[in-house]
Structure formats: structure tokens, C-alpha cells
Automatic annotation (TrEMBL):
UniProt lineage: Bacteria, Bacillati, Bacillota, Clostridia, Lachnospirales
Enzyme class (EC, first level): transferase
Protein known as: Methionine adenosyltransferase
Residues in S-adenosylmethionine synthetase central domain copies: 111-219
EC number from the UniProt entry: 2.5.1.6
Organism the protein comes from: Dorea acetigenes
Amino acid sequence: MSRILTCEQVSDGHPDKICDQVADAIVTDCLVHDKESRVAIECLLKDSRLIIAGELTSKHQPDYRRLVDDVLERIGRGKTEYGRIEIISPLDVVLMVREQSPDIALGVDKGGAGDQGIMFGYATNETPELLPVTFAVATKFLRLLKNHPSKMFRADAKAQVSFDYSSGRITAFLCSVQHSPDVEVSDFRHIIEGMMVLAACEYGLNGDFVKLVNPTGRFVVGGSFADCGVTGRKLACDTYGSIGRIGGGALSGKDPSKVDRSAAYMARKIARDIVQAGYAEQCEVQIAYAIGVEQPVSVNVDCFGTEYQPLDFIQAYVDDSYDLTPRGIINRLHLLDVDYNLVSAYGHFGKPGLPWEE
């Protein structure tokens, strides 16, 4: 019997990811200048208007316009004569930012969680990154696409990979790639299909899968002119591509006192450690918090029957080895010193140099 699972990834020019990148640029900028910054920023992008809203308490006042411009340049504005991103310049930036609620600050300042919530971490030995193979292949493809020198491609793109776990083969590979108005899909289909095969080969997989390139036809109008971008709407793309559960809270736009972010990173580290130690082939860690309380209300480990040690042993290892208070997580993972621009697109996990990936 076939067991086909599918994962999705989006490019850094997708409107939701533009919002995530702006939000995380603000977080990073504030923490560089004031480690005690409290940041909870949301962005909404439609056409040429960007709304930045939320709560910010910091000794530092961000230069929002500069941070937005830095993000757009990084994605590729002006990279070709067409520009990689469809943004009318100057972008209209609307600020709706106020200080953090003193009621929330009361609990956070005492070391408690900034909110209630459930966070998940996941790891599998399917790939060197300890990520699901479908998610890794989709992400690799979009990285190849971003670095391709052709002037035909613009910044908005999606990829989706289906994998049959019973046969160990990719069955279907789908991508939708925004392109310049003076070309047709037939002009670049062979380039995209070649990158699909190359991404699969990077993980030792087959290349004879169904290849779907821009199945609706032309994809000229993209970005914020085709869709509304919102922070935190691509949680599966930020984490495990839909394989491995995720909590309800967004990662981007939040300083690490928010357990939505910090506990998700620690849960990932724990799951990685368990797989790397050889205790299991795959692992999911769930951590839950109550607002204002330091210790989690629950910690659960599930290895889906792939464990090589008793689950009681693995659970005891987790309970004895990790400080899961918000401050303990921040200190262990050095979260006040992370450049969150590195994780605001193409996933928060599986990248070298991040403290929760070591």
C-alpha cells in the first residue's frame, strides 16, 4: 500500500514571508541595541502598503523604513531590469505600534511565560538536516531558484513535493514560479524541471516523478498584488512542511521571551538530540505553558514506535537534561544574540550555525 505524504515551501518573495522577514528584522535590530527589548510585531502587506502593528518596549527606536528597505534589497529588488519583487516605490509604511501591556510584562519580568500555549519540536533521520525529506527537497529547489541568474524569474514562488514512504520515491513535484511578462511557461519549463531533478538528486532520490510547472499557466502578477501578506501565516513552511505537528503561535516577529518562539526552538533541539543520540529514528516533543508561570505544565515525548530505548528512559532523559523555563531556554540557546534574519525565510530549522541546530 502506498503511503504518500506531501510538504510545501515558499520563497522569500512570497507576500507572507516578506511580512515575516520585516517582523524579524525589527526583532533583531531591537535586540542588537537593547537585550531587554520586548517585541511582538505583526505585518500586513497589500499592493504597495505595509502595515506594521503590535507591541514594542525597548530603549531602541527602530528605523522602520531602513529595515524594510534592507529586507526588500535582500530578497532582490532591482536585481534585474524587471526587479525581483513587485513593489511600487516608495512603499507606504503605516505604523501602529505601542508598548507591551503592563499586565503581560508583569509575568514576563518575573521569568514566567509571556502567554499560554503549546509548542512542538520534531526531528527525523531521513535527511542530514534531520528534517522530512519532502520538506528538505522543496526548500532546496527554492534555494536553487533564488540563485538562478535568469532574468525571467521573479521573487514569488511555491514548491510542493509528494513522497511515497512505502517505495522511497518522489511521486510528484509541483512548483508555481512568478515570471516576467514577456515570457511563457514553455520558455523556462525545462529550466525549472532541471532544478527539480537536481534538488531531488541532492538527497539521492529519483528524478522520474510527475513534474507540474505553473499548472494554471501564466504567473505574472504576484507578490502583494496577487495576494495579501500576513505575518505568521506560513507556519508549516517555517517548521516541518506539514510533517510533524506545530503549535498555534507564530515564530517570527517575537523576541525570545515569547515561548511561541523560544520553546519551539528548544523542543526542536531536544528532538534533534534524541535522534542524534540514537535513541530513536524520529521524535516529536510537546511542551505546554501557562501565562506567567516559569515551568511548563507538561512535557511529552513521542517517537512513533521508532525508539531504540524505552520511552520512560527517553522521557527521564529530557526531564533531567533541560531547563525549560523561559530564562533557561534563552540562556542555553543564546537567543538574545541570534540574527533572526537568518530564519525568517526558508525555514527556522535545518540550517547550520543556529544554536538549536547544534
